[in-house]
Amino acid sequence: TNSPVTVTVTGAAGQIGYALLFRIASGQLLGADTPVRLRLLEIPAAVRAAEGTAMELDDAAFPLLTGVDVVDDAKHAFDGVNVALLVGARPRSKGMERGDLLEANGGIFAPQGAAINAGAADDVRVLVVGNPANTNALIARSHAPDVPAERFTAMTRLDHNRAKAQLARKLDVPVADLRKLAIWGNHSATQYPDVSHAEAGGRPVPGLVDQSWLADEFIPRVAKRGAEIIDVRGASSAASAASAAIDHIHDWVNGTPADDWTSAAVASDGSYGVPEGLVSSFPVVARGGRYEIVQGLDVDAFSRSRIDASVAELREEQEAVQRLGLI
Ligand code: NAX
Predict the structure, then answer these.
(1) Is 248 considered catalytic here?
(2) Is 179 labeled as ligand-binding?
(3) Which of 91, 94, 153, 320 is spaced 20 to 30 Å from 2 by Cα?
(4) Per-residue pLDDT tens for 229-273?
(5) Are 253 and 118 in the same domain?
(6) According to the annotation, is 131 in a ligand binding site?
(7) Is there a single domain that holds both residue 124 and residue 186?
């Protein structure tokens, strides 16, 4: 058995938190040999609800769970943290402009980044789930100058998994037969779910689907799946988002399969013309505990224009938070 790992979940009383915490505590995040200490960060008004969740975590008697703390200050929450799951964010309310949304989230992610900088363990890994996830990760990272930039990531794994599910259904194959899908750009409606390198049971996917299905059905369906879930379920995606967060951290720590890759929003190194430093989604592999951008892929004209459009949106968000003094 390994020594306990400290995992901090923000927004712990929210609906994703509720689905996520039990999977972490059961060992699905880091494996059956790794005990976990949980820190639940909430705003004061939701601390009591988080304490209720902590009581339920006790009641599940998870053998790997060595402790649960509920806190309302970031400094406390991130002291010694190894894995930080930043789920809590300020949702867009009626009449709120994008600038207001970015500013409100800057007020959350700047101090959390600073607290991670001050107190996190040397091996800290940060996943931002709370929206706008890519730019929130950029804000947090810019307040953590002592933490390597590669440790700040944002979640597009849910989009990746959604794309896989849609493609599996279309081709009538098991999801396990699919390899090398990719999500590029922002976790927003501009994202580009890309099957141009994908394989189904070893066969190239582009030969199996037509371009009009890709452009008119697949891409918009994946990009707008969040809204579709809200419409049908009456609430936003929660367990699927938690599941994707588990996948993202699990693969980051344990590696991706040799013949496949996944998708994550990571600090760009300038690959594929994405400006260096932007937190943008790429096809990535995980090796030796690091996410690395898959290099050398051909990008056709269709893919190029889709990637550029989503990256342009990320640049606008970056410029907006720069103007607000948040980065
Ligand atoms: P909920 O509203 O159920 O929960 C959010 C929780 O965060 C609340 O309990 C709130 O009190 C808490 N919170 C707010 N500010 C906080 C702060 N400063 N510190 C600590 N906690 C704070 O939302 P939920 O459905 O759980 O979604 C959480 C976030 O995930 C949202 O921003 C949502 O947009 C985002 N999503 C991101 C996805 C992705 O793929 N990247 C997909 C799912 C989800 O939509």
Answers:
(1) no
(2) no
(3) 153
(4) 999 999 999 999 999 999 999 999 999 999 999 999 999 999 999
(5) no
(6) yes
(7) no
Asked whether residue 128 is assigned to any structural domain, the reply reads yes
Q: Find the catalytic residue in 143, 160, 187, 197.
A: 187
Residue of 43, 160, 233, 248 to test ligand 1 pocket, by largest number of atoms within 8 Å of CB: 43
Q: How is the beta sheet containing 203-204 ordered, strand by strand? A: 178-179, 199-200, 203-204
Verify that 204 and 249 share a domain, yes or no: yes
**Residue-wise pLDDT tens digits, 81-117:** 999 999 999 988 888 888 899 999 999 999 999 999 9
> Does 88 sit in the ligand 1 pocket, CB within 6 Å?
yes
Residue 141 inside a domain? The answer is yes
71 is in an annotated binding site: no
Distance CA 91, CA 216 (A): 29
To the nearest whole number, what is the mean pLDDT of the chain? Answer: 97
In a domain, 324, yes or no: no
- Asked whether 137 and 279 are in contact (CB, 8 A), the reply is yes
Q: 127 and 191 share a domain?
A: no
Judge residue 72's burial from the number of C-beta atoms within 10 Å of its C-beta, 0-12 exposed, 13-18 middle, 19 or more buried.
middle
ipTM greater than cut 0.90: yes
Q: Which domain holds residue 11?
A: 5-154
Is residue 1 over pLDDT 90? no
Q: Is the CB of 16 under 6 A from ligand 1?
A: yes
What CATH number did the domain enclosing 262 receive? 3.90.110.10
Residue with CA nearest ligand 1 atom 1: 14
CATH number of the domain encompassing residue 122? 3.40.50.720
Q: Examine the domain organization and report whether 165 and 135 are in the same domain.
A: no
Tell me whether residue 256 is exposed, middle or buried, using C-beta atoms within 10 angstroms of its C-beta: 0 to 12, 13 to 18, 19 or more.
Answer: middle
- Structural domains of the chain, count: 2
Dist. CA 9–CA 281, nearest whole Å:
22
The stretch 55-76 carries a mean pLDDT of 98
- Are residue 25 and residue 146 in the same domain, yes or no? yes
How many degrees, rounded to 5, is the angle at CA 155 between CA 125 and CA 319?
Answer: 95
Cβ neighbours of residue 259 closer than 8 Å, sequence gap 6 or more: 179
